[in-house]
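Private note to self, pasted from the team thread so I don't lose it. Backbone tokens:
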């Protein structure tokens, strides 16, 4: 099983990898399908189902779908051009995109939030349709946004295409047990095995330059969040707090005013900065999702800024180790909040971050696996219940606490020798089973939990 670090970590836009990036990617794929078709098209339509319908407006799924049909992609997204395009579409009810004739599209009637029809493949389903000059549907495709910006067609999901079909890699571990056995047999670290797999597919330059860019985007996102204040969009009137908290922390430095536990505030503020940027629709990196995008950058920034002896030369190893763990979670369970609750998002992010931090602080493969298990175990059962469908409450603070748990888990694992009672594989399987048993109300639908118990929302 091989999942590239650049599939696990993707540069995109907020507020949601599954509800914003995924639909935009699906729309782009549908445009390619239309371009390859012999039919002549006169219009397009879209229907959102399941979680994409229930929390679609809060996650900007409608905007993302329209912009995707207009040719926008998460990787090259330009906010100013997007606003201009949306304004034109709303005024003219026409989408103009390269390689196709002008397409009729009325956002009020051609984009449907279908709350009744639940597509069977995944909680995040959408149907895209192309019509002829008379308005009859001549091309139809069902897509599923399966978490982390990953998108599959109905046919791909049914055929089990969410698996690797490329050339063999040197270390094809599908479980944590296999990963540890390969590490023992080869004498390599998890990062070294993951690096060998990456290089065998994409080469050293791609890995080196791509890893630098990922951390640059992550760190830039932290810095923007630390420098920006105001109120987040969406109607909850949630105030950005990262800037003021960061300023207070800086003011306290050197004055002996801080308690030892103030280090937790540094971890939290880095994560909150990212997720405030995400909530505002800014550029983020899925890690493994947008809703959990703050945990890993916060943990890495904590390591670089606060751990004696830390070095940026370890950033690549950090990302490689995290991607190896994230791949195990995705392959054997889920990273989708709509499928398994927030345990699959912030829980997965904390496991990835804990293992990665443990690795760059000198942990053995066994200690790395232990750190990831500790972090994931203590997120089991966590629900996904965003208020008003916005990735703000409880998501922003939850990323901060996820980073704190990640650091604590790494520290505990480093205090031991790697032996422990619950294997990471068992914890991942428990998370999968818990997600399957969890009520749909608590899986990114805003039909239960905090989403229905906050007054005046």
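Design output:
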């Amino acid at each position: 099983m091989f999942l590239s670090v650049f599939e696990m970590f993707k540069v995109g836009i907020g507020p949601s990898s599954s509800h914003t990036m995924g639909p935009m990617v699906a729309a782009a794929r549908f445009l390619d399908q239309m371009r390859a078709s012999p039919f002549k098209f006169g219009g397009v339509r879209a229907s959102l189902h399941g979680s994409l319908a229930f929390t679609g407006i809060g996650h900007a799924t409608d905007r993302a779908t329209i912009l995707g049909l207009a040719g926008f992609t998460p990787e090259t997204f330009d906010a100013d051009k997007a606003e201009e395009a949306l304004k034109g579409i709303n005024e003219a009810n026409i989408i103009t995109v390269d390689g196709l004739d002008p397409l009729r599209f009325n956002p009020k009637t051609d984009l449907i939030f279908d709350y009744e029809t639940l597509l069977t493949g995944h909680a995040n389903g959408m149907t895209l349709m192309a019509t002829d000059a008379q308005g009859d549907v001549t091309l139809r495709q069902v897509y599923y946004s399966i978490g982390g910006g990953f998108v599959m067609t109905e046919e791909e999901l049914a055929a089990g295409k969410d698996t690797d079909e490329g050339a063999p890699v040197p270390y094809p571990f599908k479980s944590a047990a296999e990963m540890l056995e390969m590490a023992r047999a080869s004498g390599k670290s998890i990062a070294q095995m993951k690096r060998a797999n990456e290089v065998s597919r994409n080469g050293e330059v791609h890995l080196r330059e791509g890893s630098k860019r990922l951390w640059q985007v992550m760190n830039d996102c932290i810095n923007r969040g630390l420098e920006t204040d105001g109120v987040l969009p969406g109607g909850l009137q949630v105030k950005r707090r990262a800037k003021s908290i960061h300023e207070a922390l800086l003011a306290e430095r050197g004055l002996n005013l801080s308690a030892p536990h103030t280090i937790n505030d540094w971890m939290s503020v880095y994560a909150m900065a990212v997720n405030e940027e995400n909530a505002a629709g800014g550029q983020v990196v899925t890690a493994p999702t947008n809703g959990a995008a703050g945990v890993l950058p916060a943990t890495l920034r904590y390591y670089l800024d606060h751990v004696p002896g830390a070095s940026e030369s370890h950033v690549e190893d950090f990302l490689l180790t995290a991607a190896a763990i994230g791949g195990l979670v995705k392959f054997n369970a889920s990273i989708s909040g709509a499928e398994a609750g927030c345990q699959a998002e912030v829980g997965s992010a904390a496991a990835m971050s804990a293992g990665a931090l443990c690795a760059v602080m000198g942990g053995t493969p066994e200690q790395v696996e232990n750190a990831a298990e500790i972090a994931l175990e203590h997120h089991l059962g966590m629900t996904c219940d965003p208020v008003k469908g916005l990735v703000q409450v409880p998501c922003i603070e939850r990323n901060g606490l996820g980073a704190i748990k990640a650091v604590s888990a790494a520290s505990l694992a480093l205090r031991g020798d790697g032996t422990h009672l619950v294997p990471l594989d068992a914890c991942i399987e428990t998370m999968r089973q818990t997600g399957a048993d969890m009520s749909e109300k608590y899986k990114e639908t805003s039909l239960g939990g905090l989403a229905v118990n906050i007054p005046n929302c």
